[in-house]
Amino acid sequence: MTRKVLIVDDDANLLAGCRRQLRKFCEVHTAQGGMAGLRALETTGPFQVLVSDFRMPGMDGITFLRQAREVDDGAIHIMLSGQADMDAMIEVINSGTLFRFLTKPCRTGQLAEAIEAGFEQYRLVKSEAELLEKTLNGSIQMLVEVLSITNPIAFNRSLRLKKAAVSLGKRLNVEKLWQLEIAANLSQVGFVSVPNEIVQMGLKGGRLLAREEQMFWEYVKHGSHLVANIPRLEEVAHTIAYIEKHYNGGGYPDDSVAGDAIPLHSRILKAVSDYDMLKLRGFAKKQIESQLQEWRDRYDPKIFNLMLEVMGLSVQLQWIEKSLSAAELEKGMILKQNLKTNRGVLLVPAGVELTALMITRLRNFVANGAVNEPFLVKMEAPANE
């Protein structure tokens, strides 16, 4: 892998000196100011190491590195300053996001040494992350394969739940979508402790004895305990524990947790799980809708209405168009027209759903006079419109 460093400073002479000093041992990119640095990240990144001046007009080094982390959270950060605001610097250092802090002017070779150390730190962090990722993926795959062998019915159901849950999660712009996907993938793994005939009877609505019914619904408890043994999956285990919990407080487990206190990923999986169970039981489309409407107090209202739309049932979301300023833009809005700079450069094509980072970028372009307001967007209509 090519070793790449981006150095951001408002001093053109300093940047030229850095290029001369460092070009022999790494690929050096420079940017004059924070906005130019963010553009460099998007056009020529990723970089293993980012070096930023602290005091810069328009966007200081702390702001640049914070926004840079939204674009690439893997880079190692180094900061330079000739007139450090110590309170701000102490806050940044204590946050654990800064690898080195150097005062200007640096002695000969000091910056090169710090960047070399940054490359080594990047290598170590990436190596550890790759090892953890392989371990995590291997553990997940092992559980899924065990389920596929011991209980194919539950395994096939987990595949359907994953597809439906991820579709809903994307529409809801949920955080940590990867955790929702893993939770759906492992949602049925607790059935390895339940005899296949009881799983089949329970899912398809057959008559179960009291002890068999308890055995059936405890699949989430057993699945949660299994997943909790895998590092980094504690939140996933908590999600699985509450898949069968009703939004109104009923369901399993029998505790006081209700409403938004139930993990969001659990609420999503509860909705798609019940939908899937009704399909397994042979319900027709209208019967499924009718039964879900009867059970609607089991579900988060936002998730319930969107699920009906995603699953092709009756409720449809209503959309409206508005012209908004950059300050009024919100995540999830959809651009209705190609967005170009005043020089005709396409920034965002029509039809793209806005993310937090896109909105930050657009606001910066507006502040810099490179893009004109307002923006024509499509958004979900409020319930009273």
TrEMBL record:
InterPro entries: CheY-like_superfamily, Cyclic_di-GMP/3'3'-cGAMP_PDE, Sig_transdc_resp-reg_receiver. It comes from the Bacteria. The keyword Disulfide bond does not apply. CDD domains: REC_HupR-like. Keywords: Phosphoprotein. Residues 4-119 form the Response regulatory domain. One of its GO terms (biological process) is phosphorelay signal transduction system. The modification 4-aspartylphosphate is found at residue 53. The keyword Manganese does not apply. This is Response regulator. It comes from Acanthopleuribacter pedis. The lineage of its organism: Bacteria, Pseudomonadati, Acidobacteriota, Holophagae, Acanthopleuribacterales.
